[in-house]
Amino acid sequence: ERAGERLEYKGIDLVAHAARRRAEARLRRADGLYKDSLYEEAEKWYEKVKEKAELFQSNRENLIARNKLDQALDLYEKKGNFFKAFQLFQEAEKSCSDPDCQEKVQASLNQLINQAAADIEEKLRQVDEKIAESKFLEAQEMLYSLKKSFYGGIYPPPIREKVALIHEKEKFLLKKEGEWKDEILLQKLEKANSLLESENYEEAIALFDQLKGTPYQSEAETKKQLAIDRLARKMRIKAGQFFLQARGSGDPELKKIYLIESYNILKEINDNYPNNSYAEKIRKNLNDVRSEIEEVYPEFFKQEEPLENESLSSFFEGEEGRNF
User: Fold this and answer.
1) Which long-range contacts (CB under 8 A, 24 or more apart) does 84-92 make?
2) For 155, what's the count of Cα atoms within 13 Å in the CB-facing half-sphere?
3) Angle at CA 152, nearest 5°, toward 84 and 68?
4) pTM for the structure as a whole
5) Measured on CA atoms in the order 200, 173, 120, 161, is the torsion positive or negative?
6) Distance from C-alpha of 76 to C-alpha of 87, rounded to nearest angstrom
7) What is the reported pLDDT for 260?
8) pLDDT of residue 137
9) CB 286 within 8 A of CB 278
10) Considering Cα of 166, then 169, then 170, then 171, what sign does the dihedral take?
11) Helix axes 2-79, 82-95, angle to 10 degrees
12) What is the DSSP annotation of 193-220?
């Protein structure tokens, strides 16, 4: 009986052992499948990341190229600077690595070249019109502006051909300049007077300066001094407004900004035009502003020379002061 029990227990052990082995085998297979699954998922994830990275790199290059194209077109359309615009197009093309991006850049560049060539033709036509109307000064200025826009650079053939036309027109004007000399001088005087009346004082001063040594020198010098005085008065009023804003400000940083702006305006006008009729008053104003700045920003004047001291009331003296 006991022998039978031992055999029965042994049979049970064998069955249990076999069951354990089957269970372990299933676990190993399950673990292998799980790892295989993880590996497959990891491979898929890697491929997706790689794909996105390549796409991102491509999009990044396209974005850089697009930004340069926008800058180039804006530069040409607003400032007429073809030289800089053309350089930006070349940079945009270099930033592209894929053919599609390069093709788009080239297409945009071709449009710019065609537009620029047409613009040159139109400007030269306008120059000819000015010459026909005896507006020689305007013709010269228009041609100079056109030449400046396309100055320098190694351009494609369509632009080189048009630039050659600009040089030809320039040579023509230089030959005719002697014949038109008196008329050009008179037109400069008239334009300078117009700039003076429209309060473009600095441009007027520069043009009056060009009339030195001409029959119009005396009138130009008188008008130039008038332009200087009007400019000084205008800038002094502007400086006074900043000064008053500083005094009314409760913000120390803002007050400092207003005072420095006021000081710089006054100093600039006396440095550039020391013979202006308001020079003495401006020197007094500079001392006033300096005193105020030293209270809030003393290090600003470490490199400055001291100015004579006057009262703040000098800002408000005279007819001009009532405008502050």
Assistant:
1) 85/112, 86/112, 86/153, 86/155, 87/153, 92/64, 92/65, 92/66, 92/68
2) 25
3) 15
4) 0.53
5) negative
6) 11
7) 93
8) 86
9) no
10) positive
11) 160
12) HHHHHTT-HHHHHHHHHTTTTSTTHHHH
Provide DSSP, 124-183.
HHHHHHHHHTT-HHHHHHHHHHHHHHT-SS---HHHHHHHHHHHHHHHHHHHHHHHHHHH
Note the pLDDT of residue 21.
66
pLDDT at position 320: 45
283 vs 275: CA distance, rounded Å: 12
Q: Are 283 and 197 in contact (CB under 8 A)?
A: no
What pLDDT score does 231 carry? Answer: 96
How far CA 181 is from CA of 141, 211, 214, in Å, comes to: 15, 12, 10
Do residues 291 and 313 make contact, with C-beta atoms less than 8 angstroms apart? Answer: no
At residue 58's C-alpha, the angle toward residues 53 and 64, to 5°, is: 125
Based on its alpha-carbon atoms, the radius of gyration of the chain, rounded to whole angstroms, reads 40
- Give pLDDT < 70 ranges for the chain: 1-59, 61, 303-324
CA distance 257 to 102: 48
List, in order, residues 6 or more apart from 74 with CB less than 8 Å away. none
Please give the sequence-ordered ranges of beta strands (E in DSSP) within 178-316, or none if there are none. none
Return d(Cα 82, Cα 247) in angstroms, integer: 47
